[in-house]
Amino acid sequence: MAEQKTSCVVPASKVEGPAPGSVPVAEEKKEAVRMGVTVGMKAPDFTAPAYYKGEFTSVKL
Amino acid sequence: MSAVADRYAEFQALGVEVISVSVDSQFVHKVWNDQELSKMVDGGVPFHMASDGGGAIGTVYGVYSPEQGVDFRGRFLIDPDGVIQAMEILTPPVGRNVDETLRQIQAFQLVRETKGAQVTPSGWTPGGKVLKPSPALVGNIWKEWNPKDVYGKK
Question: For residue A22, which residues of chain B lie inside 8 Å, CB to CB?
Answer without folding.
Answer: none
